[in-house]
Amino acid sequence: MTPEMPTDTEPVIVGVDGTTASRGAARWAAAVAKRFGAPLEIVNGRHATGRPLTDAAAALLAAAVTAQRESAETMLKSVEEEIRGDFGSLNITTILSDEPTDVLLTERSRHARFVVLGSEDVTPAAALMIGSTTLAVSAHSTCPVIAWRGSNAAPTDQPVVLGVDYEHTGANAFKAAFEFADRFGLALNAVHAWSEFRPPVDAITPYGVDWDALEALRWQSLLNVLDPWTELYPNVVVTLFVETESAGKALMHHVQDAQLVVVGNRGRNALAGALLGSTSLNLLHHCPVPVMLCHNAPEGQ
After folding, report:
1. For residue 247, what pLDDT is reported?
2. Alpha-carbon gap, residue 135 to 140, rounded angstroms
3. Which domains does the chain have, with CATH numbers?
4. How far apart are CA 21 and CA 14, in angstroms?
5. Do the Cβ atoms of 235 and 182 come closer than 8 Å?
6. Which residue numbers delimit the UspA domain (predicted)?
7. Euclidean distance between CA atoms 89 and 97, whole angstroms
């Protein structure tokens, strides 16, 4: 079933920590919020800290937390002023919290349109240690999470790339990709990866497999799964691609000339994703443009 349309009161949320990447993400998120007619929330939470083992360590930790909060207040004000300077009419709020950043963003994602983060590369080692805010939020967020990277301070006129694994992609990913393309007047490239082995032309195959017919079936299945969305968003120009390689490689080839790649997340935990080499983790590690991760809707929704 198609997910409900988010309302214009649902904010675009951006997590900031004062880094260049987070400031870039904030500007990009502001441009997206303006085009969607949504408010912008600029959010900062505390860094995760361990439990102090001694009273002296506790005192030092308390002093560090106080200093961090004061620094965060100054940083949030600076980011807000920068955004207001370029987006004066945008409804902007700032939130400073003592909750860990990943917990805060996950909680606020329940009533958000998007969560945007200036993303560091997410390596398999980071996934194994659950050491990335981007990874933690992506794994538990209710709304789509956008890991911003690159140098574009606002969306461009380049196409959106949507990774399609038929129904496994999930309605949320289709909805988010088509709506983003529609709002910005962009083309959409739908990419399906087919990594099955195909023997050489002169090879003898068992059971008389008709590889051409099988590939044609892939194309037809792709058209079928996209039909409801092209009808819902008739202004979005869609180009279809069926690639005979892994999903990760296929998407990386297509994002070179794109501005955003959208993929569905099947809800694996971070550890499973790292061990299985998931497409999402591969994109978070290597993709040069923003990556939007969309969880599948629960059954029956």
Report:
1. 86
2. 9
3. 7-118 (3.40.50.620), 155-301 (3.40.50.620)
4. 11
5. yes
6. 11-147, 159-294
7. 25
Core vs surface per residue 5-34: b (16+ CB within 10 A) or e: ebeeebbbbbbbbeeebbbbbbbbbbbbbb
CA angle 10-13-17, nearest 5°?
165
Evaluate whether 292 touches 260 at the Cβ level (below 8 Å). Answer: yes
pLDDT in tens, 195-223: 654 555 554 555 555 556 666 777 788 88
Question: So what's the pLDDT on residue 94?
Answer: 95
Distance CA 193, CA 20 (A): 34
Determine how many CB atoms are found less than 10 A away from the CB of residue 66: 10
pLDDT for res 71: 76
Type and span of the H or E element at 240: strand 238-243
Q: Are 174 and 162 in contact (CB under 8 A)?
A: yes
Spans in the chain with pLDDT lower than 50: 1-2, 49, 52, 58, 61, 63-64, 67, 126-131, 197, 203, 268-277, 299-301
By the 10 Å C-beta count (0-12 exposed, 13-18 middle, 19+ buried), 139 is classed as buried
